[in-house]
């Protein structure tokens, strides 16, 4: 659907694209800022604590103060680290997290985003690049805790990428498209229900795999504080540490947006504007990830990988084959 590829790009087209990217980046930075605040508040309430309440009214400026602190802290590079790789690894980890948002339709008009015919593949391929930044950061730090965290993250993210992709392909089979806008439209035309109903089994596989992909509790093995200090970013400080944290929370938003689009009808809903329905559904998914973090214990690494290869992948393959058979017959 990229019609502008058929002709040379004009200066105005490029300016509009750049402006749209800046607007989306600013919006995402604001969302991430208050997503972190919301997480700290929610977990505080669940653990019978108050949470941030000092900086600004109700603590609303606490995350902003934390970001400013990170930006002015000294950027330390360990003496025996691979300096070049150490410096660029956080950037490699962050950029894919922002780029995947290019195909997420926030509303029916999908303003500032692209209605790509390969949106699902684009998301999966770009998100996989973050693994490179994580492994590079752990290896280049020349720190045993960082290296172990990087290796754990690579094993975990690669293992759970497979069932995640399979669960999404089942939705692609039902909709007949990899265009995320068309997938939302297909759910509107599906008899009375979103894809969460016929693909409930696939959704369970997706949400478990997504939690592992995000390195969230109970799958936060790559940065297990009690074992690895801070995992793959143990040696990072200042704004490079902030890049890793920013990538993590941008992916929380992006994965929630993907789940909303694929299984819950995207912007579809009665009475309210489409963008508001989208925001409500995404917020519910974000709350779910925080809720799980506050309630679930961390599992062991061997349990994590065994569960993916011996349980989730066979179930995802079974769900994919069953969906293909049903769609062929019906």
From TrEMBL:
Keywords, alphabetical: Cell membrane, Membrane, NAD, Oxidoreductase, Quinone, Translocase, Transmembrane, Transmembrane helix, Ubiquinone
Keyword set includes Translocase: yes
Membrane topology of this protein: Multi-pass membrane protein
Subcellular location: Cell membrane; Membrane
Record's catalysed reaction(s): a quinone + NADH + 5 H(+)(in) = a quinol + NAD(+) + 4 H(+)(out)
Main location: membrane
Main enzyme class: translocase
Pfam family, one: NADHdh
Coiled coil: none
Transmembrane segments: 12-37, 86-108, 120-141, 162-180, 192-212, 241-263, 275-292, 304-329
EC number: 7.1.1.-
Molecular function via GO: NADH dehydrogenase (quinone) (non-electrogenic) activity
InterPro entries per the UniProt record, alphabetical: NADH_UbQ_OxRdtase_su1/FPO (IPR001694), NADH_UbQ_OxRdtase_su1_CS (IPR018086)
Protein task: NDH-1 shuttles electrons from NADH, via FMN and iron-sulfur (Fe-S) centers, to quinones in the respiratory chain. The immediate electron acceptor for the enzyme in this species is believed to be ubiquinone. Couples the redox reaction to proton translocation (for every two electrons transferred, four hydrogen ions are translocated across the cytoplasmic membrane), and thus conserves the redox energy in a proton gradient. This subunit may bind ubiquinone.
PANTHER family in the cross-refs: NADH DEHYDROGENASE SUBUNIT 1 (PTHR11432), NADH-UBIQUINONE OXIDOREDUCTASE CHAIN 1 (PTHR11432:SF3)
Family listed: Belongs to the complex I subunit 1 family.
Complexes and interactors: NDH-1 is composed of 14 different subunits. Subunits NuoA, H, J, K, L, M, N constitute the membrane sector of the complex.
Protein name: NADH-quinone oxidoreductase subunit H
Organism: Tumebacillus lacus
Taxonomic placement: Bacteria, Bacillati, Bacillota, Bacilli, Bacillales
């Amino acid at each position: 659907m990229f019609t502008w590829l058929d002709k040379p790009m004009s200066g105005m087209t490029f300016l509009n694209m750049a402006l749209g990217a800046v607007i989306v980046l600013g919006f995402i930075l604001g969302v991430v800022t208050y997503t972190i605040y919301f997480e700290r508040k929610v977990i505080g309430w669940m653990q019978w604590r108050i949470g941030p309440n000092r900086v600004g009214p109700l603590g609303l400026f606490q995350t902003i103060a934390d970001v400013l602190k990170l930006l002015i802290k000294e950027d330390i590079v360990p003496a025996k680290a691979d300096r070049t790789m150490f410096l660029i690894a956080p950037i490699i980890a962050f950029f894919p997290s922002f780029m995947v948002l290019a195909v997420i339709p926030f509303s029916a008009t999908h303003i500032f985003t692209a209605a790509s015919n390969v949106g699902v593949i684009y998301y999966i391929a770009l998100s996989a690049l973050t693994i490179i930044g994580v492994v590079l950061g752990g290896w280049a730090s020349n720190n045993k805790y960082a290296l172990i965290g990087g290796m754990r993250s690579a094993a975990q993210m690669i293992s759970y990428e497979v069932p995640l992709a399979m669960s999404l392909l089942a939705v692609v089979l039902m909709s007949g498209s990899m265009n995320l806008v068309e997938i939302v439209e297909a759910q509107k035309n599906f008899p009375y229900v979103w894809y969460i109903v016929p693909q409930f089994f696939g959704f369970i596989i997706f949400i478990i795999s997504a939690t592992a992909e995000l390195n969230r509790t109970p799958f936060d093995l790559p940065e297990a504080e009690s074992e690895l200090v801070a995992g793959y970013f143990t040696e990072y400080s200042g704004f490079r540490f902030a890049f890793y944290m920013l990538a993590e929370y941008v992916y929380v938003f992006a994965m929630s947006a993907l789940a909303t689009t694929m299984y819950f009808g995207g912007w579809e809903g009665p009475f309210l504007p489409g963008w508001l329905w989208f925001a409500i559904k995404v917020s519910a998914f974000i709350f779910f990830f925080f809720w799980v973090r506050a309630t679930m214990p961390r599992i062991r690494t061997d349990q994590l990988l065994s569960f993916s290869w011996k349980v989730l992948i066979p179930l995802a393959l079974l769900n994919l084959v069953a969906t293909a058979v049903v769609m062929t017959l019906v």
